[in-house]
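Hey, quick one: can you model this chain's 3D structure?
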Amino acid sequence: MAHAPQDPLTAALPMPMAKPRFEPGFLTPYAFIIPALLVMLGGLLYPVFMALYLSFYDWQIGLPLEDADFIGMTNFARMFTDPQVWEVLWVTLRFGFWTITIEMTLGVALALLLEKPIRGASVFRTIFILPLMVSPVVVGLIWRYLFDARIGWINYYLGAWFGIDPQVWLGDAQLAFFAIVLTDIWQWTPFIFIIVIAGLQALPSEVVEASTIDGANWWQQIFLVKLPMIKSILVIALLMRLIDVFRGMEVMLIMTGGGPGRSTELLSLHIYNRAFNTQQLGYASAISVLLIVIVFAISTAILTMANPMKNKSDV
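Sure thing. Here's the predicted structure for all 315 residues.
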């Protein structure tokens, strides 16, 4: 095939140089991010790797780590056959189920009721989020006093208003479990409320108005319009509370110490007791690895099933 003759003027011009792939200074933003990223990774990954490393040793506080005995998978074998571990894991799962279910239900319901400006709503919101500002240790002290069998306000008002005999709330297994569930609901329902109401107020008003024009009633707007549009927010709130349930221990330590028996001993509190009360740091590290695996597995399952980032139209 014959080629078209090339213009001599065009042939005389120099060929344009290829544009550099990376412009000067493109690494500048990353230079500001890397130090914070390294600190964050060090704070997150180092404890995890250290816990995994210690789980292969029989180590106690005061003993130099280089003098600890390497025992391989013995701690993990012991953990899977230890009835105490499975008992506290069951307590943790029960506690997480009841607290997260009730907190999500109450938080979403209150957010739906108070999403629109009504008289006194701002005052109620301010009062409602006060439990989030109280440290867990103070929360445990407050509710331990309220549930006290002799001088607690709960027994006093139950007797004065309903004629109910005083109950040993923190001395009975079932009542103590109910007490820590109620305490957690009081403390963390405002957290769900804040997240959900922020998502509801960010919804585009045009969508809600369109559903009203189409004849949707209040319930249909909630379950067919509003909640589906904030699905990603609900999933994130669920995951954050799930992680908090597995790592929380301060309130239970102050209120009941995990008792009576192990009726209120969560897995995180059991790890603390193994590490510092019985001086079994290697075994406690093995249980903490189990805790990390459980939280990772449940979180991955929730994200896989819900996939909150799939719908880009979510708020």
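One thing worth noting: The domain at 59-306 is CATH 1.10.3720.10 (MetI-like fold).
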